[in-house]
Specification:
about 550 residues; alpha/beta; Cholesterol Oxidase, domain 2; seven-stranded antiparallel β-sheet
């Protein structure tokens, strides 16, 4: 075996890539190359929970993507934070641990995806998790990924829970247990000292000590080399040189819902007409590469904070310095949380079989910044409304044949009227919760949408003017049992041997909540599939 030849080449050291690198290299006979376009995750801000809003758009750690002008949002371009760093988006996200609703996975099974029902995937969630709850029916206690309840301020959480329950939404002690909707305390992927526990920290650090894993950072993969209908390896740029890496068994794409379809198209796999338009030789005409893009949209309801909790006071420069020191030395204090105080998973229509909205209550508004003493500052709190089952679908296409060019991304947010209708109903529910007497000591007047916005159309205008995303893109390399799907139920690319996709792009539909935990589950399950294929002959069928 040559020095640059490996059994498996994994493209992307994000959430899926880190898990795969760990699980595959547990077998010392397997040689793995892990390629990451970003750098290492050593910056201290990447570990601080409250700093996630800063690092998620910091170009040192972010791809810097935006959408194309979104037609339903007045032509606005929406910022799309994506981690370009070891650990991927798990190194820059809000650390929310949320697996999805059981009905999400049972729906996948009903779509013909055998082995993807809730009872099938639950063991993989448990395998990766080291929950603060310990081992049980729904949780793992021995996994690599640490999950803790957020140390929220009871002065904030309790009134919110009281108000939400008065509005008809019961509190649940475990959203992943028997009661899968209602008012919850936030669970975070943080360690015992309130440091971010990304997949790089949880899975990759151990694997990097093994001699059979090689990782190359700041390596931009430019194409998959296809020889005789099989993925033979990849080309990547590193340090100004173009390097070839050979894969004797498989190439595994774990670049995420934007970069995995982009790399497939750059390699000649995708919609034939589009590839030809960019001068790319068509290897496989697969019209659905880049299609089916789904995302949880999000929009704000913002209230003035009367000061009973006033998280903004901790953002005054002198206090922030002390809070940062307290977190660094003790793992406690206001900077040990991600800013969320409570959540509510709810159905805006009673006939639904699972929540279609998540309300995320935060201790301050999303645009809050550090401020100096004697500087005017608006103290505010925010409810972020996340649409859980959007009907609109977007698309990822190529900007050019240059791998360094960002792909074109059109989410088509609120391209379906039903998504706007859901958002309007959710705004009214958030207002009802904020308006309850239990909240009277915490919140004052409504800043957004503002009390003047009362009709459905006025609230819809607020949606179009303010909506963005939760950074949960999925579906662009859709898994399916049908011939038109991009990958099969074993995540193998249809039409090309030795090529697999393992990341959020394979999800056929969005799950309820946040998708980092589902991506980790998918990678856990994929590792077993890959090992099983190797055991029966070492080469995955196309």
């Amino acid at each position: 075996m040559s020095e640059n030849s490996f059994d498996y080449v994994i493209v992307g050291a994000g959430s899926a890539g880190c898990v795969l690198a760990n699980r595959l290299t547990q077998d010392p006979s397997i040689r793995v190359l892990l390629l990451e376009a970003g750098g290492h995750d050593r910056h201290p801000l990447l570990r601080m929970p409250i700093a996630w809003t800063m690092v998620s758009t910091d170009r040192r750690f972010d791809w810097g993507y935006t959408t194309e002008p979104e037609p339903q949002l007045g032509g606005r371009r929406v910022i799309l934070p994506r981690g370009k760093v070891v650990g991927g988006s798990s190194s820059v996200n809000a650390m929310r641990y949320s697996r999805g609703h059981p009905a999400d996975y049972d729906q996948w099974k009903q779509m013909g995806l055998q082995g993807w029902g809730y009872e099938d995937v639950l063991p993989y969630f448990k395998r990766s998790e080291r929950s603060w709850r310990g081992e049980g029916r729904y949780h793992g206690g021995q996994g690599e990924l640490r999950v803790h309840e957020s140390p929220v301020d009871k002065e904030t959480y309790s009134p919110l829970a009281t108000a939400a329950k008065a509005a008809g939404y019961a509190e649940t002690a475990d959203i992943h247990g028997d009661v899968t909707e209602g008012v919850i305390r936030t669970e975070l992927t943080i360690d015992d000292r309130s440091r971010r526990h990304s997949t790089a920290r949880a899975f990759l650090r151990t694997a990097l000590k093994r001699p059979n894993l090689t990782m190359v950072t700041r390596a931009l993969t430019t194409r998959i080399r296809i020889e005789n209908g099989r993925a033979a390896g990849v080309d990547y740029r590193h340090g100004g040189a173009l390097i070839q890496a050979h894969a004797t068994r498989e190439v595994i794409l774990s670049g995420g819902s934007y970069n995995s379809p982009q790399l497939l198209m750059l390699s000649g796999i995708g919609p034939a007409d589009e590839l030809r338009a960019h001068g790319i030789t068509v290897v496989l005409d697969q019209p659905n590469v880049g299609r089916n893009l789904a995302e949880h949209s999000i929009l704000p309801v913002v209230m003035t904070d009367k000061g009973a909790s006033a998280f903004m006071r901790h953002l005054r420069m002198d206090r922030a310095a002390l809070a940062a020191m307290r977190w660094f030395f003790t793992g406690r204090g206001p900077f040990s949380i991600n800013g969320n105080t409570a959540g509510v998973f709810l159905r805006t229509r009673p006939e639904l079989d699972r929540p279609d909205v998540q309300l995320i209550f935060a201790a301050t508004s999303r645009d809050a910044k550090l401020w100096w003493p004697h500087q005017p500052a608006v103290f505010s709190v925010q409810c972020s409304i996340s649409i859980q089952n959007p009907q609109a679908r977007g698309v990822v296409t190529l900007r050019s044949a240059d791998p360094a060019d960002a792909p074109r991304i059109r989410l088509n947010l609120f391209g379906e009227q039903s998504d706007i209708d859901t958002a309007v109903r959710a705004i009214r529910i958030a207002r009802e919760i904020y308006g309850h007497k239990a909240m009277s000591g915490l919140v004052g007047e409504e800043l957004l949408p503002g009390k003047a916005a009362q009709t459905d159309e006025q609230l819809a205008e607020h949606v179009r003017a303010t909506a963005s995303t939760t950074q949960h893109p999925c579906g662009t390399c859709r898994m399916g049992a049908d011939a038109g799907s991009v990958v099969d139920q074993n995540l193998r690319l249809r039409g090309i041997a030795g090529l697999r996709v393992v990341d959020a792009s394979v999800m056929p539909t969005l799950t309820v909540g946040h998708i980092n935990a589902p991506v980790i589950m998918i990678a856990e399950k994929a590792a077993d599939m890959i090992k099983a294929d190797q055991a029966v002959g070492g080469r995955a069928a196309a």
